[in-house]
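REQUEST ID: PR-0412
SUBMITTED BY: lab tech R.K.
PRIORITY: routine
TASK: structure prediction, single protein chain
INPUT:
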Amino acid sequence: MEKKKTEVTQISTTLTMLAIFLMGFIDAYTFLQQNEAFVTAQTGNLVSLSVKLFSGQWKEAISHVWVFVGFAIGAFAGEAVIDRSRDKGIKKYRFYLLIQTILLLALALAQEHVAGAIMLFVLGTLAGYELTIFRKFRGTSVNNGIMTGNTKNLMGHLYQLIFNNDSKAKSHFNNLAATVLIFMFGVGAGTLIIQVNASYNLWAAFIISLLTFGWTTAHQASPSQR
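STATUS: complete
OUTPUT:
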């Protein structure tokens, strides 16, 4: 039982790492290609929305509304999925990833024909879904696309480590530091791909999700999971 619990934790951590990377990767796409919108960082999205609204840039503000609404719906849907699959162990991750992979494939195929508002709505929904489902990095709770909270917690654990010599704080500090770095790497990778060809970003995101789904499926089929 303990071995199985450890294995589930390891899989959850790996999937959270990939989700963090993917959210940074997609954020680079929406920022550079979709009116400087953020699909994960709703604080930044709301700042942009409010600035554009109060400066009379009504049309530009609409894109941020779509992202926010999509994110809220995605977070709600993610909570519903979690609530209905609590007892399914590793199998539930296949279901999570299947939904994500189908969404990304649809967007990659239709990206030349889909209006920016629809693209932002769907990507916002995906981000809310991701942030709700993949939120455990080893034993640390993380926001896989919102670095404000992660950075605050990072510094809090650093304080506990330095002044109280808290061994648990050291573990949490390392996990949160890794989270921030993985997200930055995802943004960087997304930016580099966009510089080559913007349409490649969503295809690359789909391939990452598909490979992750395949890895999870193969892991479940291994003798240790039967």
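NOTES: DSSP finds eight helices and two strands in the chain.
REVIEWED BY: pending
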